[in-house]
Each structure stands twice: as C-alpha cells, then as structure tokens.
Amino acid sequence: MPTTIIQLLGFDGPNLHSPQPGVFLKLRSDKNRARRVKDALKDGAQGAGMVMGYLAVDSATDDDGGYIITASFTTPTPAIGVELGRYIVVGLNAQEAGDQDWDAEGPLWDLQKRRRAEALPLAALQLIAEAAARAIPSLIRADGQVQLGYGARGWAFDPRSGAREGRRYVDRVSAGEIGVVSPASIEVSAASTSVPAAVEVPWERLGPIPIIAVAGGAARDIAAHLIAATLQAHGQATGLAEAADFAATRDLLATPATAIAIIGLDAAGIAQRGVAFERCAFSAVSDLPEALPVAVSSREELARVLGVPMLLTDQAGRVALNADVPEIAALAEYAPCPIIYISTAEQNQLVGFHRAQGGQALFVRDGTVIAANGASEQPILAATLPPHELPGALAGLALLWALGLTWEQLKVKS
Questions:
Q1: pLDDT tens string 92-104
Q2: Most CB within 10 Å of its CB: which of 237, 259, 276, 385?
C-alpha cells in the first residue's frame, strides 16, 4: 500500500501546532516510515534551501493495522513547505516501487528557484528587522506591500521600489497572501536590493493597535458586533471584521482608519491557515460551531483551534471563556492571563469555584445577568435574548467589562 496524504496544511501565522508559520503533514502508510519521513523532509529542505525549524515526527498504529504518521515544522515559506510535503510522499512511494526513472533532483531545484524568486529584497528585510527590534509588528498586504505597524499606526511601502504606493508585487506561492512577518520569517534574496536603504520611515508613529479577538460559532459575531458598536458609540475609531479568515483579518489590520480592531474569527480559517496577528489585547471563546471544519477531527480539537487567539493574549489582558461548554472550559489551564467565565446556567460549579478564588464571572440567575468579582455581585440586566444569542452577548459584555467600561458607561441599568 502506498503512503497517502490524509492532511497537509500550510500556516501563515500562529496556529494549533506552533506560534510561528509552518506546515502540518498527516500520512497513512502500511509500514512505520516515520524515520524515513523525517529524513526525507530534512534532506528535501536542505536541497531546496528552505529554512525549517522544530521538526517533529510521530507515528501510531491505526485500526487497520497500518500507521498514521504526523509531521510538523516551522518555516517562513509555508507554501513551499506544503510542496515539499507532497514531494517527499511521491519520493517515498517511488522508492518503495523501485521506480528508477523518478527525478529526485528536478523538483527540489524548482522549489529552490521559486524560493529565491519570491524572497523579499534585502533592504525590505532590514526595515522589517528594525521594526521587530522596536516591537513594531509587520505584515505583507494583499497588494504585496510591506506594512510596518497595524491600522492607524501603520505605514506601507513597496518592497520592490521603496515607494509608498507603487507597482504591485504578487506572492505567487499563495495567490498574493503571505502572512505575518516576523524575524523568523525573513529570507534574503541576494539578487534583489531595489528598496533604497535610506527610506524615511516614520518610526515615532508606528506600532501595534489593540486587537480584541472573539472565536466561536453562532455567538462569535454577536459578541464582536456588540463590542464594536459600544466602542464606536464612545467615539473610538473601531474596525470590525466578522466571520473573518486570515485574509479578512490581515485586511482589517492594514486599514488606516482602524485604531482598535475587533475580529470575529472563523474556525475554519484558524484551522487551515492560522491567525494573522502575533498578539492581541483581549480574547474570548464564546461557543463551538455545530459543524466541524474540514481540517478538524473532534470537538476537543475544535476548542483547541478556537483557543489559538487565547494563547496570544497579552498577560495584562483578559480572556472570556464559556464555562457551560466543557471543551472550552478545558482551555483555562493554558490561559496566559486572568479569565472571566461566562455562563447561561442557573448554577455552574466551575463559575462557583472560580469566584471562590476571587475570579470574575458574568452569568445568568433567575433571568438576570449578574456580574461577579469574587463574592461581590451586581445585577446588570434582564436576560431576554434567545438562548442561542445569550453566550455572544455575555462574551461581549465580559470583554467590555475587561476593557474598563463601567455598567453606567454601557448604559445598562440594574
């Protein structure tokens, strides 16, 4: 039986498997070829001149007596890493079949040429590295321009000409969509240095903007919309992306009018490509979608996928978790910041235990939403929304509370 690909994903940003761009490969084979897969990936990356890090390969038997082999690695060129994954599977099968005509060198040479052609010019990389040293995030926009900073604190230039607005540079690896740029994702093209070294960058006004990320199912966009509408009513220049995949998130972060980004993250987008930012100020996991995305095998895995933005939340921030969904509640042990639990149940033991330790919660009792800080309670409003909308409203209120808005500012009467 030949080795076959079950799943092959290229991530352009933080994902379920790593906080960096990379590749995940899952194979089925009649023999335990984990060692051969690992060696083939290492040799192939070297042959293509591709940067590879944190390579991990594991194997386990399946119900049919065969083997499931998984491999993951980080790389600044995930689209090329995906092609490398396909290449090594073809090679394994050719070797197993004794195919003497299979060309092992040609595809690697093609990948190497492709990598070199798509590498950013040295001068652009120098600006990205300078931005990283100043804690300024970077991204490559859909139009091919490199942007330093996000939203209203962003500034873009054409990496091929150095102009703010210039000719289009398209990344052919992923149809014009490279993701988050970090020091680990820079690759030098010795042949391309057209960006002037003396580009005047307005460093003093560049930087990140607050990102509030909500992941979940039907309740997700209710929360995101509530947060955005409330902040806009208080005069904040807020940008909103609902049901956002990687591209939509990146586009919002590239919008000059955005001072605060509110993002309702699509589960399938996170599962298949990762997220388009490396840090957020606040986050929530409101609920689980009813259907599993193509790249997800269980509700537990789905919750972990939705928890990726939680892992990126600033330690000084807050994360709101739905205590009524066991798979979501299980994420709490990985939270890098304090938790606000939300619950629509009359009594939730997890909420009670959390409050006993001085934690915050927003829950429903006798038809009324209660805000609790440890043993202290405050009735907020009547819980009149339909049951399927209530988790979203609670998640939105919890993050607005975390942002420092009082219930009076929210115009909610007890």
A1: 999 999 999 999 9
A2: 276
